Amino acid sequence: MYKAPVEEIAFTLKHVAGLAPALEDGRLGDLTDDLVEAILSEAGRFATEEVAPLAEIGDKQGARFIDGVVKMPDGWPALYKAWAEGGWNSLTAAPDFGGQGLPHMLHVAALEMWNSGSMAFAIGPTLTIGAIEALTTHGSDHLKTTYLPKMVSGEWMGSMNLTEPHAGSDLGVMKTRAERRDDGTYRLFGQKIFITYGEHDFTNNIVHLVLARLPDAPAGTRGISLFLVPKFLVNADGSLGPRNDVHCHSIEHKLGIHGSPTCTMIYGDGRFGDEPGAIGWLVGEENRGLACMFTMMNNARLAVGMQGVAIAEAAMQKAIAYAKERTQGKAPGWQGSGMSPIIEHPDVARMLLTMRVLTQGARAITYACAHAIDMAHGDDAKHWAERASLLTPIAKSFATDAGVDVSSLGVQVHGGMGFIEETGAARLYRDARIAPIYEGTNGIQAIDLVTRKLPQSDGNHIRGFIAELRDIAAKARAANTPELGETGARLEASIADLESATDWLLATLAEGKQAEALAGATPYQRLFGLVLTGAYLAKGALADGGDGRNGERAALCRFSAENIIGETAALKDRVINGAASLAAARAALG
Ligand SMILES: Cc1cc2nc3c(=O)[nH]c(=O)nc-3n(C[C@H](O)[C@H](O)[C@H](O)COP(=O)(O)OP(=O)(O)OC[C@H]3O[C@@H](n4cnc5c(N)ncnc54)[C@H](O)[C@@H]3O)c2cc1C
């Protein structure tokens, strides 16, 4: 059973991602080390003792669609109630609306633990928190005072409605339409698919944030507006009024996250109300909806990255425990009586250590992204906003790929039992698979990274970041301890690969050769994630004891440098030299 790794999480937050210096400098207001510890350990306890035990029933029973109503798995409504009463929805929300105004770093750490407990459960509250952020940033005072207090307290949940049958990655072609009414409200008509927690029995109202198009809107993404559409209309005194003209038509049968209802939502077919049309309120300005939704999506992208870390951690814990118990054969040098535990076999140890490196690397990258988001509210805001936007696609993609890779290795470590549902390893693998797809596929993240994030400040931001990474490598080289092995030199080589690939991409984009640059976008994204993994593991090893001598952390860092991050050389080659063969081989696809 999963046990929240609170100590490792606290260490990574403080000594790798930047929480400790931010606390010391007072950049996080009144937040103290004691409060950080208290929040992390209570979030960890909740994840371990309350969420994780209900993951299996959520998977087996799933969310069910019965007579037009979504019934959540047994025990889950009470779990949600306990979660909301614990105040967990309010961690980062604004104090004006009942929130605690705490940094994102704490939120993502808590998210990691809840998602390790059950990803299908944690995704619901995550979307509500994203909706709270979008409303806080872009909503009118009327919308904020009407909806935010109840969303922050958890009394109502939110959902995010972008996708339509023909409009997934390309939202510019969406058809859901909105009509203006004289009283300042709008009426919405259309169908949204794949809407997570679009309907459920956790709360008595659901606040849908919906993208739609006005009749006179320009074509494409510049003609999309964002609306708030409640399931039940809200009276002036805050009580619930009549049902709005929106309902869930059906829910999907899926590979994983069975407890999370994935809903087809129908807006404005006349099922409820006096006249057809779901009543909605504009959030932000007309035709600026995508920019508003991006507030929610950036938050959600990092949150989905946390799902990758979370699944990886849970899969790794399960695999290590199994490998210590299961005995087969005799490992080289095994002195014990009888068969050796499989963890003693070099190939099994290799799998487990790879799992640990990818998990810890993904954790460090996602936390560093959250740190940049927190810092972007203070001095040097431009620098930190650029860092956050550079790290977001890497955090989302590298961590969710790690979730799939690590949970797949977890199945492998279990052998045949991994393929049998009883162990739970298979559930983690099935759950992990959605994360590289939703919130912008990892391919779309790679395009964002290469075409929008690298050119920030004429390429100077990324160059500055590479210089920071070089500094870590230089410190590892200077430490020169046997425990760190070749870390300094290997990390320097990987950083050089990142630099060459970056320079090539910036030059290729500047020449207008978009197709050539995009052919290597995903290998580049992976390359970047591996370099960051190596650098952050080294930073952690150096911080632990000051000289990289601490056994466990230094050993893992060395393993990553000498066994994992060397892939960057091949990835660099694919970025720089892969486009021509890709274009030529298109014929092979028919
Ligand atoms: C379980 C689940 C929950 C979801 N929850 C929500 C939700 O709450 N709200 C919501 O609005 N949506 C939700 N979605 C939808 C999800 O965000 C989309 O499925 C996702 O964005 C991909 O869109 P698509 O499925 O239409 O795939 P497509 O856009 O058709 O993509 C198919 C493939 O083509 C690639 N591709 C597409 N365009 C390009 C391009 N320009 N360049 C390169 N490659 C490209 C993609 O990377 C992908 O590999 C959910 C989906 C699932 C399965």
Topology, element by element:
Elements: H1 6-16, H2 19-24, H3 33-51, H4 55-61, E1 64-66, E2 69-71, H5 76-85, H6 104-117, H7 119-138, H8 141-153, E3 157-161, E4 177-180, E5 186-196, E6 206-212, E7 225-230, E8 232-234, E9 240-243, E10 246-251, E11 262-267, E12 278-283, H9 289-325, H10 346-375, H11 381-413, H12 416-419, H13 425-432, H14 442-453, H15 460-479, H16 487-510, H17 514-519, H18 521-543, H19 551-564, H20 568-577, H21 579-585
Parallel strand pairs: 3-6
Antiparallel strand pairs: 1-2, 4-5, 5-11, 5-12, 6-7, 7-12, 8-9, 10-11
Helix pairs in contact: 1-10, 1-18, 3-6, 6-7, 6-9, 6-10, 7-8, 7-9, 9-10, 9-11, 9-13, 10-11, 10-18, 10-19, 11-13, 11-14, 11-18, 14-18, 15-16, 15-18, 16-18, 16-19, 16-20, 18-19, 18-20
Task: Characterise the protein shown here.
The protein is globular. Strand 8 and strand 9 form a beta hairpin. It has 21 helices and 12 strands. With 590 residues, it is α+β, with helices and mostly antiparallel strands. It has a domain at 441-581. The strands form 3 sheets. Strands 3, 4, 5, 6, 7, 10, 11 and 12 form an 8-stranded mixed β-sheet that branches. It has a two-stranded antiparallel sheet with strand order 1-2. It has a two-stranded antiparallel sheet with strand order 8-9. It has helices at residues 6-16, 19-24, 33-51, 55-61, 76-85, 104-117, 119-138, 141-153, 289-325, 346-375, 381-413, 416-419, 425-432, 442-453, 460-479, 487-510, 514-519, 521-543, 551-564, 568-577, 579-585; strands at residues 64-66, 69-71, 157-161, 177-180, 186-196, 206-212, 225-230, 232-234, 240-243, 246-251, 262-267, 278-283. The model has no long low-confidence stretch (mean pLDDT 95). Residues 160-163, 168-169, 194-196, 254, 262, 434, 437-438, 440-441, 443-444, 447 line the site of flavin-adenine dinucleotide (FAD).
